[in-house]
Specification:
alpha/beta; eight-stranded antiparallel β-sheet; seven-stranded antiparallel β-sheet; binds 2-deoxy-2-amino glucitol-6-phosphate
Length: 642
């Protein structure tokens, strides 16, 4: 989590940094801040670091910068909604406008925070300054041994303004700086990092070196790019779109010294290393909400097109060719790994592998699996599911699985992500950029690609003839996105509740888990999902007349059994909401307070279509509760710390 940026070049630094950060607020929005080097007004021969930071979202920082005239009041505001081309044009204009009046400021760093250590306050916001005000730093990651290092620094008479782990890094930099050194070197940062345990992407600047940035990376993404006159640094190369054609990606324990328009890379031994630039491709995705009010709403509505896109890309590329009989027979075990929504997609994936291809597969939450001493080896296929490809625990499992000789297969939406590079095989999710924190279209894409994989293996192993691409294409036209009118009274009722329950069996139980996560994530309603058969084993004790219980039933052969569970809850007063592709008899209908008609689709594909209604429901309840669906409290889109 946390997004970091850096910039060396001409132009209004503050504005440029905020514009770059705008691409990264998906990584956290607890606070935001920037630091730029300015000439000292009293003594033009010296410089100082000017820090502006505040708690809250990026627009609070922007407002602060405007109020203090650090960015022009009359010029454009960064919109919440932009596309990269438009943004680039704006940056160029502002550069031209300001180049003449802002020769003093030559480099800066910026940060958007998801709090790990220390609450979301202005004091804990980044950048942090060293005690002597010579260094400023922005950090993404967690310094695990910060308490111990802090004590050492306190013994060395250092004081601390924040409760963050990051502030120790900037003071270690001060401690490791040789004041006699008149030229910038990467040595202080390397020496500092040698003491750190944990994860970090770091960007630092020093007031004595006007156009220099110091970078380091371990387990948190960091990228750097240069054009003729500028150097740009960011946690995500999306920030470089429109600025450069290629970029460098730092690996673990690599460092970078950027001076003027020169970039030099180093290893932990302080030796210069060569790196190859990567092409900046697939980044021209539009980040506009167009006519939609929120990204979440837009992304749900894109689901049919996402399915079409998957069909197009998987029919014109050979991604699935590797999955032949010889390949799959090498394995005695298939393990699917993910977190949150991606874990739920993995659960469906394992069921697909079992049902369609008769492959014994299991799914684990990445953060549990990595500490569970798993039995995996070169006969294990590990499928890692991740929208962002940057989720720390999922990456850690991939690293461990690679070490143990497993074959790792990443399903990710970000084709340049850490996971995509780390896994031995990568298959794209083709969902397009997902901005809203609550994953919607990416979930459907994950389940869809897992369906393709399982079907391909079924054809290979069991000589089946599943027309999986055609099936998906057909489904894309069958998916129905409910409207506000479809849910009007239900939304009113649910939005007044503090709790909600979901029950289902088999695939539907997994859909219940995902529907329940969506609801709690953006509405803060305490919603929970249970297998329908588990009611009597405990949770029935929670049911009374005020309870709202969603019953999802898309499998004909399990319908009766699921209904039995629902009746047991009704007998205890629960208000039932039935969601199914099947029509109920009029007599049975009476038992339900609401009925959600799900699209009639092939039962195997129901997990892809049935979730959509619940994504829309969560979105509408969220609006009714006057909350922001795109940025729920305490969460971030990309979870780069464990
Ligand atoms: C879902 O709505 C969540 N925001 C979250 O559970 C997410 O799916 C999870 O953090 C995994 O992210 P990833 O797919 O990028 O790895």
């Amino acid at each position: 989590m946390c997004g970091i940026v850096g910039y060396i070049g001409s132009g209004k630094q503050e504005k440029i940094l905020v514009d770059m950060l705008k691409h990264l607020d998906y990584r956290g929005y607890d606070s935001a801040g920037i630091a730029v080097i300015k000439q000292n007004q009293q003594n033009s021969l010296t410089c100082k670091i000017d820090v502006t930071k505040t708690k809250g979202k990026l627009n609070s920082l922007e407002q602060l910068l405007k109020n203090s005239n650090k960015i022009p009041k009359n010029k454009f505001l960064v919109k919440d909604d932009f596309n990269t081309e438009e943004l680039q044009k704006q940056i160029e204009t502002i550069n031209e406008l300001n180049e003449a009046d802002d020769v003093n400021s030559t480099c800066g760093i910026g940060h958007t925070r998801w709090a790990t250590h220390g609450e979301a306050t202005t004091q804990n916001a980044h950048p942090h300054l060293s005690n002597n005000n010579e260094w400023a730093i922005v950090h993404n990651g967690i310094i695990e041994n910060f308490q111990e290092l802090k004590e050492e620094l306190i013994n060395n008479k250092f004081t601390f303004k924040s409760k963050t782990d990051s502030e120790i890094v900037v003071n270690l930099l001060q401690l490791n700086t040789d004041q006699d050194n008149k030229l910038p070197t990467i040595t202080p940062l390397i020496e500092t990092c040698k003491k750190l345990k944990g994860s970090y992407a770091l960007a630092a600047l020093n007031k004595n070196f006007k156009n220099t940035l110091f970078l380091a990376r371990k387990k948190s993404p960091l990228y750097v790019a240069k054009s003729k006159k500028t150097i740009v640094v960011a946690s995500d190369p999306i920030c470089f779109a429109g600025k450069t054609k290629e970029y460098y990606s730092l690996n673990d324990n690599e460092f970078c010294l950027c001076t003027g328009n020169k970039i030099e890379f180093y290893n932990l031994k302080n030796e210069v290393i060569e790196k190859t630039a990567e092409k900046l491709e697939n980044l021209n995705q539009t980040k506009t909400k167009t006519s939609y009010k929120h990204f979440m709403q837009k992304e749900i509505n894109e689901i049919p097109d996402v399915l079409k896109n998957i069909v197009k890309r998987y029919s014109t590329n050979n991604y699935l060719d590797i999955l032949d009989k010889v390949f799959i027979k090498k394995f005695n075990k298939v393990v699917l790994i993910g977190c949150g929504t991606a874990y739920h997609a993995g659960l469906i994936g394992a069921r697909y592998l079992q049902d369609l291809a008769r492959i014994d597969a299991s799914t684990s939450v990445a953060s549990e699996f990595r500490y569970a001493n798993p039995i995996i080896d070169n006969k294990t296929l590990v499928i890692l599911v991740s929208q962002s490809g940057e989720t720390a625990d999922t990456i850690a499992v991939c690293e461990e699985a690679n070490k143990k000789g497993c074959t790792t297969l990443a399903l990710t939406n970000v084709e340049y992500s850490t996971l995509a590079k780390l896994a031995k095989i990568t298959m794209p999710l083709c969902a397009g950029t997902e901005i809203a924190v609550a994953s919607t279209k990416a979930y459907v894409a994950q389940v869809a690609v897992l369906y393709l994989i399982a079907s391909k293996l079924s054809n290979e192993l069991l000589n089946k003839n599943i027309n999986f691409l055609e099936n998906l294409q057909k489904l894309s036209d069958q998916i129905i996105i409910p409207t506000k009118q479809d849910f009007i009274t239900l939304v009113d009722e649910i939005s007044k509740k503090q709790t909600a329950f979901f029950i289902g069996r088999d695939y539907d139980y997994i859909t219940c888990e995902e529907a329940s996560l969506k609801l709690k994530e953006i509405t803060y309603i305490n919603s929970n999902a249970y297998p329908a058969g588990e009611l009597k084993h405990g949770f029935l004790a929670l049911i009374d007349e005020s309870s709202y219980l969603f019953v999802i039933a898309t499998k004909r052969d399990l319908l009766e059994k699921t209904l039995n569970g629902a009746y047991e809850a009704k007998a205890r007063g629960a208000n039932l909401i039935f969601a199914s592709q099947f029509e109920l008899e009029n007599e049975v209908k009476k038992d339900f307070k609401h009925i959600l008609q799900l699209p009639k689709v092939d039962e195997n594909l129901a997990p892809l279509s049935s979730i959509v209604a619940f994504q829309v429901l969560a979105y509408l309840v969220c609006l009714k509760r006057k909350l922001n669906p795109d940025k729920p409290r305490n969460l971030a889109k990309s979870v780069t710390v464990e």
